[in-house]
Amino acid sequence: MSGPPREIDALIALMARLPGLGPRSARRAVLHLLKRRDMVMAPLAQAMATVALTAQDCRVCGNVGTTDLCPICDDPRRVTGEICVVETVADLWAMERGGAFKGRYHVLGGTLSALDAIGPDDLRIPDLAERVLDEGVSEVILALNATVDGQTTAHYIADALAASGVQISSLAQGVPVGGELDYLDDGTIGAALRARRRV
Amino acid sequence: MSGPPREIDALIALMARLPGLGPRSARRAVLHLLKRRDMVMAPLAQAMATVALTAQDCRVCGNVGTTDLCPICDDPRRVTGEICVVETVADLWAMERGGAFKGRYHVLGGTLSALDAIGPDDLRIPDLAERVLDEGVSEVILALNATVDGQTTAHYIADALAASGVQISSLAQGVPVGGELDYLDDGTIGAALRARRRV
Ligand SMILES: [Zn+2]
Ligand SMILES: [Zn+2]
């Protein structure tokens, strides 16, 4: 029995550990790359090596960039005094795609989780409290996921910041733009109903 | 609006072109890697660069390896005179996982397809005819997928080799209609090989 050569096997094993890929789809992806060694595989390896070498977490907000201070924290046109708290960098990018928020971010790096033994100190929550004091923040917007852990974390942060007197808000829950009621879960519809506004 | 930095955007775009990944799952995979820059991302980039540099198609059978002649063609313990014809290297690996075939392979690189304008000369079929004559081959086993294009290709090869007098057989029992070898369990492939029939 003679499977892929050792080097290719090692590559498949590493690819198979990516989220959304398993052994079979990793094999498929590697075979796809093997057919395009010069035009796709080598550039992809190069791009990945570059990012592995140059990526840095922003020392202020936890966003990922290629500098000590990320482009958002470093941008003088961003509104000061408004911090949007997100769980992950993926959520920060989603907020930026929306384009509606003009302030700065704070990336927690996850949510509180009793099950996974993740506490406030694992999540850059102490850094957030410090920023609120140091930066003269007037509003903290909690843009956490509408999951149990996300909401638990939101409540914890609201409590932790209560003494500072900063205004704390959270994203409105409701029907997504273009969303069809028939496809939404009941919780979403209930929340949308409770948060209804006059037109 | 400030999305991922240019280097990370470039990496996401390249990852999104892999089969089975789209823009969202590529972003997810890259964020996963960004959290594990030293332990996973750098080794993955290195493994990919190594393969891009060292991988070669075997000059005899079309299998992928790191040498001019692949380990199977180079292995004196493999039975000579039996060639198993497969569409892709993925199928060769699937056959090898089955472990039932002791001969050598011929990787076509696809199937005949009128729609995609893929003819015999695009598929290493002329090389196969040459090997049958040069290597004193007694049996050619057609292990092509049970798809329309796979079976069209099998018939074409059987016709092309008819004059040579070589025995031609094909995988039979166990391969479901429309089934692709790479998705079958090892036992099924072994059973199909043992029950192969002459065509
Ligand atoms: Zn920042
Ligand atoms: Zn070979």
UniProtKB/TrEMBL annotation, chains A, B:
Which residues lie in coiled coils? Answer: none
Q: Which domain of life is it from?
A: Bacteria
Annotated ranges, domain Toprim: 81-176
**InterPro entries from the entry?**
DNA_Rcmb_RecR (IPR000093), Rcmb_RecR (IPR023627), Rcmb_RecR_Znf (IPR015967), TOPRIM_dom (IPR006171), TOPRIM_RecR (IPR034137)
By its UniProt entry, which PROSITE patterns does this protein fall under?
TOPRIM
Q: Where are the zinc fingers (C4-type)?
A: 58-73
Keyword Zinc assigned to the entry: answer is yes
What keywords is this UniProt entry annotated with? Answer: DNA damage, DNA recombination, DNA repair, Metal-binding, Zinc, Zinc-finger
Keyword flag Protease: no
The task this protein performs is described as: May play a role in DNA repair. It seems to be involved in an RecBC-independent recombinational process of DNA repair. It may act with RecF and RecO.
**NCBIfam families in alphabetical order:** recR (TIGR00615)
Describe the family membership recorded for this protein in Swiss-Prot or TrEMBL.
Belongs to the RecR family.
Name this polypeptide is given: Recombination protein RecR
* Gene encoding the protein: recR
